[in-house]
Give the backbone structure.
Amino acid sequence: MKKDKKNFLKELKEGLSKKNKTIPSKFHYDLLGSKYFEKITQQKEYYPTRKEKEILKKLSKRIPFLFSGDLSFVEIGSGAADKIKILLNKKVKYYIPLDISVDFVKKSVANLKKKYPNLKVKPIKIDYSKPFKIPNFKITKKIYFFLGSSIGNFHNKKEINFLKNIRKSIGKKNYLFVGVDLIKNKQILENAYNDKNGYTSKFSLNLINIINRNFKSGLNIKNFYYKGIFNDRLKCIQGFLVSKINQSFFLGKKKFFLKKNENIQVEISNKFTTRSFSQLSRLAGWKVKKYWLDNQKYFAVFLLKS
Ligand SMILES: C[S@@+](CC[C@H](N)C(=O)[O-])C[C@H]1O[C@@H](n2cnc3c(N)ncnc32)[C@H](O)[C@@H]1O
């Protein structure tokens, strides 16, 4: 069995053996999962993409003044590389997207080359849920990005380890832009994760297909439905696959059971205040230089300095 597949099996077994079953959200992103995510970002209920883009448009005018000389943009979890297009300018010589779904990224960045023929693009596969090294190309000054409120997708407050890891990996006096979704009205939050066209549901149910394709588990997508709810106590959206029936399935030789109405948590999206995210960043050893908000104060983009 290949290493990636072995890890997938190990993490699946771990998550599904817990009392409250979980599957890490990074496993959503096969090619189809990445396409579904792109669809989610286009839904009218899904405000985070629109709001973050509104802020990045403001920022695009500032970036050439914030940083002098030639630049390289390193984007962690870039996905479709859609937002970085707003920020690119002639000073940017390299774009380095780092993502678990690197085949999707390679396809997505193909048209960047048309608009910016001199831009060198180097997609790299990483898994940022574990400690990882950011490739240290000795090129221009590098500016780092972690957009799309992906900082909210860590369980058990592990985002602090992620922020510490990047800071150590990139060294002192470097800059990281982070997109952060803010706590707001519960209905607005829940609508964003339960779009009427059902793309969030398709994105989550696709996990069952990914598991079956890899392990012939005997799971059937028809025996699940998706729900996204805001947990007021933990200040996060939790996405669940809910079992419609009592059922069993296999992972390798191990048999698992799911009761009717039992939840598997497949998504977490922690929400912050500007204060709580500033505190978190400082605890991880970053300086908070500045943050920008959209006009409804739904979303923030932070600029951190190591
Ligand atoms: C919520 S999407 C955000 C995409 C994009 N940054 C945006 O703002 O629209 C998360 C992205 O991170 C990638 N990703 C998720 N978990 C990852 C992990 N553990 N390591 C590396 N990339 C991951 C996914 O493939 C996806 O492209």
